[in-house]
């Protein structure tokens, strides 16, 4: 694909979510997070380095991986 197409031409808009202590719409920070926002917006989350391997070893092998 070449080029880009504005999202609004297809009736799409960026998601609004909690990221740390702020509310964002796409990459744009809208305002600071407030306690009542928890029920209104999903929280952005991600897994850090090695989380999948550590979780699998705990689940299937019954122990956390050894540090090298």
Outline:
It contains 1 helix and 3 strands. The chain is of the alpha+beta class and 68 residues long.
Please characterize this protein's 3D structure.
The protein is of the alpha+beta class. It has one domain. Helices cover 16% and strands 19% of the residues. It contains one helix and three strands; from the N terminus they run βββα. The protein has one helix at 51-61, and strands spanning 16-19, 22-25, 28-32. Strands 1-2-3 form a three-stranded antiparallel beta sheet, with no helix packed on it. Strand 1 and strand 2 form a beta hairpin. It starts with 15 loop residues before the first strand and ends in a 7-residue tail after the last helix. The model has no long low-confidence stretch (mean pLDDT 87).
The biggest sheet, with number of strands, parallel, antiparallel or mixed sense and barrel status, is: 3 strands, antiparallel
**Shape field:** flat
Total beta-strand segments: 3
Could you report the average pLDDT, rounded to the nearest whole number? 87
Strand order of the largest sheet: 1-2-3
Radius of gyration: 19 Å
Give the tally of structural domains.
1
Name the helix and strand elements from N-terminus to C-terminus, one letter apiece: EEEH
Q: Which strand-content bin applies to the residues?
A: 15-25%
Helix/strand/pairing category: alpha+beta
Count of separate DSSP helical elements:
1
Distance between the termini: 44 Å
* Approximate helicity band: 10-25%
Regarding quaternary structure, what we see is single chain
Low-pLDDT residue intervals, each spanning 5 or more residues: none
